[in-house]
Amino acid sequence: MQKETLESFRSGKVNLLFATDVVEEGIHVPNCSCVIRFDLPKTVRSYVQSRGRARQNNSQFIVMLERGNAKQRDQLFDIIRSERSMTDAAINRDPDAFILKACTIKDTDAYYVDATGASVTADSSVSLIHRYCEKLPGDKYFVPKPTFQFSYLGGSYECKMILPPNAAFQTIVGPVSRNSHLAKQLVCLEACKKLHQMGALDDHLLPSIELPSEQDIIVQSKESTSGAGTTKRKELHGTTFIRALSGTWGEKDEAIFQVYKFDFCCNIPWELYSGFVLLIETKLDDDVGNIELELYLVSKMVKSSVSFCGQVRLEPEQMMKAKLFQEFFFNGLFGRLFFRSKSAGAPREFLLQKETKSLWNTSNMYLLLPLENTSSPEPYRINWMGINSCVSAVEILKKGALLGTERFNGETGNSAPCIDGFLETKCNSADFIHLADNLVDINNLKDIVVLAIHTGKIYSVVKIMSNTSAESPFDGSTDTAPSEYTSFAEYFDKKYGITLMYPGQPLLQLKQSHNPHNLLVNFGDEGTNGNTLEAGVLIKKPHIHVHMPPELLIRIDLSREVLRSFYLLPSVMYRLESLMLASQLRGEIDSCSSNFHISSTLILEALTTLRCCENFSMERLELLGDSVLKYAVSCYLFLNYPEKHEGQLTARRSWAVCNATLHKLGTAHKLQGYIRDSAFDPRRWVAPGQCSLRPVPCKCGVDTLEVPLDGKFQTKDPKIVVGKCCDRGHRWMGSKTIADCVEALIGAYYFGGGLVAAVHIMKWLGIDAELDPSLVAQAITTASLRSYVPKTNEIATLESKLQYKFSVKGLLQEAITHATEQEQGVSYCYQRLEFLGDSVLDLLITWHLFLSHPDIDPGELTDLRSASVNNENFAQVAVRRNLQQHLQHHSGSLLSQITEYVKFISEPHTSRSLQGTKGPKALGDMVESIAGAILIDTNLNIDEVWRIYEPLLSPIVTPDKLELPPLRKLNELCDSLGYFIKEKCIKKGDMVHAELSLQLKDALLIGRGCERGRKAAKGEAACQLLKELENRGISCSRSASQKRKLDSEHHSDSSAFDMDIDVDNQISVKNSSEPNKRHKINEVQLPVESNRVSSPFNNCSEKACIPNNGTPVIASIKTKKGGPRTSLYELCKKVQWPMPTFETTESKSRTPIELGEGSEKRTGFSSFVSRIDLHIPGFGSIECTGDARADKKSSLDSVALVTLYELQRRGKVIIGGS
Q1: Cα separation of 1011 and 994, whole Å?
Q2: pLDDT per residue over 351-382, tens digit each?
Q3: Which residues, 6+ apart, have CB-to-CB distance to 66 below 8 Å?
Q4: What is the dihedral of CA 19, 25, 31, 34, to 10 degrees?
Q5: E strands of 315-410, at which residues?
Q6: Nearest CA to 1026 among 1140, 914, 872, 910?
Q7: Distances (CA, A) of 777 to 14, 633, 636, 937
Q8: Helix axis angle, 44-51 relative to 70-92, nearest 10°?
Q9: What's CA 458's distance to the chain center, in Å?
Q10: Which cofactor does it need (predicted)?
Q11: 3-state secondary structure string across 765-797
Q12: Less crowded by CB within 10 Å, the N or C end of the chain?
């Protein structure tokens, strides 16, 4: 306020200034034409300096004297004579005269700091005390400053100084002096000494600034990128390996395993799944090895359970067969059993032909074996018969018994495999089918599992194609285009060199194996009838079947139920691995000792980011942990630093809980390796013994699994992709994610074990939060000894309203005392208790919302907390409960504002202004400080505080009653509709004038606001726009806003146009081989009677339909991927055109298509064509269609480019200055 007043005086807006003697020196004021001094100057210097302010020509300097006071008149004359004498002596001094006199040097009153050499004299101590007071917390009603009381002791003076109630101490009495001026200086000097000794002044004798302690300082190397704990900074980190999965049994002849049984139960009764067992060396924690989870398949759900079943010993032969089974089946289903060397003409190789030791890693050693489907009383029975069948199949492929080496190469033609002699008698029977290694009854073929010997792929038999044979026309099963093969027999002969022995046998229809899917997420409840999800859009896809001669198949003695279960294993194992990692972290945190148990599921939630696309994430726990951390640190600081004022405590807390500090603590304990920051990609998941088909070689420049904390592994480059792992587990991660994880873990421990558990993990992290019970008793004792003027009725009345009687009344008296009471001699105020109470209410309300709304979106939970935990809400609580009348203060301005606010609150809601009167901050502060006082009085019983405050705070906002701030609400509405807002703010005097303009399709709306603050002015303008939009029938529900936020990862509405150049619009799939048409441009003419604008001359009631800003200019169109869309987006934002809508169509061909030109040329079987609809206010709509492209984003760029050039042709934009 003082700075604004001085600025107004300097600029000429104010021409009369009332000030204390502080303007004599140190504060710049312009030359004045008239200076009137009301108080008599005490020194010649004071007289000269105040008169010096009247520097204009013909200015006046007036000193006011008490009428008839001869003493004052004589004193003023003495000062004037002294000033003239000093002036004459200076003017008439002989510069050549040197008079040497003996003199004695009197020790000057001063205080020195040996460490720095800093000093303060009696003369400079007064200004230093004022400077110290200026740094103390204050508000618009209270400016901290010292007061002085003089005592006349028969010819000498004694001065008593009283400092503000939030100073390090309140009163001090100086030594007796010969005059009052010296007495004031000496008491200030004594105060400076004491303040330095207490740490309130630093060694440079300046007011101490709260800086982080050495352990809190973020040490950075010269190469280190700034911004630790921020969203912009990205860091390369490794992934912690799971110790529970490591094993050395691969080197042993026999081993003992822990057995964990997998059971699967589908919600469709006739869909059966085989059980499996997981064999590992390490016993898992109970909450990891005994779990249930739901797996979401297309149009069905499978409940899976994991249970511990004791131990099992495997003999050497069993271990060999189990490993071979795992290698065979996982590679046959999800990988390849045959590989062709990269060198030209080299034969293809069988993966398991040679030593397979390279497929196994001691850090990831476990077995997954199928179980027999029996009703045996045994808890499990491994299906060794099926395993042996797979071993036999491997041996057959190894020996090449059925197909020779030349046959695998496809070079020479050999006859089909021979059947052993004892089967010859059945060869001519129509009831049997010849397989490659056996004869099978035709009635037993359905649903059996088979292996194609020429490809190594695993299938299940769907049915016998009775009207077909190998002589039937070859259709490729998926291709309707003319084929180069006339029959299946010719196809296998020419492509694989196989001459079929039984070409007359009917073909078998086989169900192809497919990639595993992420079954942990229910991507769409609406998915039925074979629907699947591609790019976030549910699309119906046909089942993929192939036709094959039976004699090329080996029967695997496993049921189709086993095959079904194999597709569930990647998702089950991924969840188990994640829980193992969470349990591993829990073991590190609780390694010392703990009397609580936090579930691994809860810790896993704290380690999982939104990017994982799970149905849980760290966001809710992060919000809770933030409040818990704030509360714990606040209690620690309040009790451990009783001499610190609120500003110092707040600064220390800010350093302790800031993201940079949390990031440092998190990385120091290697939390980054535990964080799950990307969605589960089952195609890259590999079991032990499986060879990855999608390797991502490490190019990170790090040879170790762990990445050093070095600046060269930090960047702010927006092109860096976050979350994608290389084969060594290195991945880029947002720096803030680590800080968020620290808060989420604190929240998880608080949720699972209360405040004791939360303090335990804070101690492990290195956060000072552990409290000494004696400090609480000390705080209570200090409050009970504090001197105050008891107001019995005041305290008793307030206690009745609170429904709580204080044991120490001094705590409540302090909680309701404003700092302005200093003028009445009160030496305390509520600021420290407000600091504590703020964190108490933050935690209590957050915990209440967390428990009351377990299913709402984390963003909405944050909004609920923001609406409940704020000064305005607490001020309303004070007025609703009539607490404002108990606030002890000495400020007329505060009293008038409270009166005005109480009147505003009592008005009917409908008659209130758009923005309304803001509550005095002192009222909200009092509500917080009373909460802090109750917490101390109850010996930190936070539950008791909630018992008292829950009825006071009621009704607490709920999601259906949540009202967002006007500007936020307007922004969300415009984002959903694709409109842009332009804002303009101008400061005129003390007021800010804001103007928000919103271009609709048929009108330009303008809202205006005028308030003291920029935010409030924009809020008032937003209120006007929202009201106008509502009158036009345009509004946005809160639920719709939340739905858009939840769906943003996978879906978006048709107007989506993301700045990260990733537009996920609905894709309609058409299986067509028709060539795509070139782009077309259609202009839609709007009818005159339509509500849409058809002419730039149509006006709405607010403004012309489109602002006349001239033709916009685009310097150049970015040619890289996403560039045309970015240019179009920036254009629309600049001229406030509504966002264009996109529609993309995918066409599939059964023959390869060449798309694109030059470096963009690509060949594929799908083409994407995008269409755009852009509405230009006052002109109409433009529709454009782009060229066909091989991927969706390129097709969007194509149509954006076409649209930009069409806009240039129509004179709506200038590109490149042309």
Answers
A1: 8
A2: 898 888 889 999 999 999 999 987 778 889 99
A3: 72
A4: 50
A5: 338-340, 348-350, 367-370
A6: 914
A7: 53, 18, 14, 9
A8: 80
A9: 44
A10: Mg(2+); Mn(2+)
A11: HCCCCCCCHHHHHHHHHHHHHCCCCCCHHHHHH
A12: C
Residues of 263-284 as b/e, b for ≥16 C-beta within 10 angstroms?
bbebeeeeeebbbbbbbbbeeb
In sequence order, the 6+-apart residues with CB closer than 8 A to the CB of 479 are 1150, 1151
Sorting pLDDT into bands at 50, 70 and 90, what band is 792? low
**Per-residue burial over 1013-1048, b = 16 or more CB atoms within 10 Å of its CB, e = otherwise:** eeebbbbbbbbbbbebbeeeeeebebeebbebeeee
The one-letter amino acid code at 749 reads Y
Q: Which residue is listed with tokens 């714990």?
A: 632
Which pair of tokens denotes residue 16? 């009369």
The whole-angstrom separation of Cα 434 and Cα 449 is 15
- Tokens found for residue 549: 């001669």
Q: Are 1169 and 1148 in contact (CB under 8 A)?
A: no
DSSP H stretches of helix in 1032-1170: 1038-1047, 1123-1135
Q: Which helix (H) or strand (E) holds 997?
A: strand 991-999
CA dist 289 and 258 (Å) reads 10
Contacts of 196 (CB under 8 A, 6+ apart): 111, 113, 202, 203, 205
Beta carbons within 10 angstroms of residue 392's beta carbon:
14
Ranges of beta strands (E only) in 271-417 are 276-280, 291-297, 300-314, 338-340, 348-350, 367-370, 414-415
Mean per-residue pLDDT of the chain: 83
Distance, in Å, from the CA atom of 136 to the CA atom of 130, rounded to the nearest integer, reads: 10
What tokens does 573 get?
């194992």
Do you know the residue count of the chain? 1218
Q: Which tokens sit at 187?
A: 């008491």
User: Between these two residues, 232 and 431, which has the higher pLDDT value?
Assistant: 232
Structure tokens at 582: 């969470």
DSSP-derived pairing of the beta strands 1141-1155 and 338-340: unpaired
Tokens of 291: 């779990």
**Does residue 983 sit in helix, strand or coil?**
strand
- Higher-confidence position of 1159 and 119: 119
Taking each helix axis as running N to C, give the angle between helix 646-657 and helix 659-668, from 0 to 180 degrees, rounded to the nearest 10. Answer: 40
Predicted pLDDT at 1035: 76
Determine the Cα–Cα distance for residues 633 and 639; give it in Å rounded to an integer.
Answer: 10
Determine if the pTM surpasses 0.85: no
Closest residue by Cα to residue 241 from 762, 734, 727 = 727
Percent of the chain with pLDDT over 90: 46
Which whole-number Å values give the CA distances from 944 to 324, 670, 803, in the listed order?
64, 38, 11
Q: What is the DSSP letter of 994?
A: E
Is pLDDT above 90 for 55? no
Contacts of residues 351-359 at CB distance under 8 Å and 24 or more positions apart, as own/partner, are 351/327, 351/456, 351/691, 352/324, 352/327, 352/328, 352/394, 352/397, 352/398, 353/398, 356/323, 356/327, 356/689, 357/250, 359/327, 359/688, 359/689, 359/690, 359/691
Asked whether 442 and 432 are in contact (CB, 8 A), the reply is: yes
Tell me: pLDDT of 939 over 80: yes
Q: Which of 1004, 1175, 1204, 998 is nearest to 1113 (CA)?
A: 1204
In this structure, what are the phi and psi dihedrals at residue 492, rounded to the nearest 5 degrees?
A: -70, -30
What are 570-628's pLDDT values in tens digits?
Answer: 999 999 999 999 999 999 998 866 788 999 999 999 999 999 999 899 999 999 999 99
Cα–Cα nearest to 856, from 598, 1045, 677, 1056: 1045
pLDDT tens for 535-555 read 333 344 556 688 999 999 999
Residues 6+ apart with CB under 8 A from 132: 167, 195, 200, 201, 207
Q: Where are the alpha helices (DSSP H) in 1011-1088?
A: 1014-1031, 1038-1047
Strands 531-534 and 537-540: antiparallel
C-alpha–C-alpha distance, residues 1033 and 517, integer Å: 44
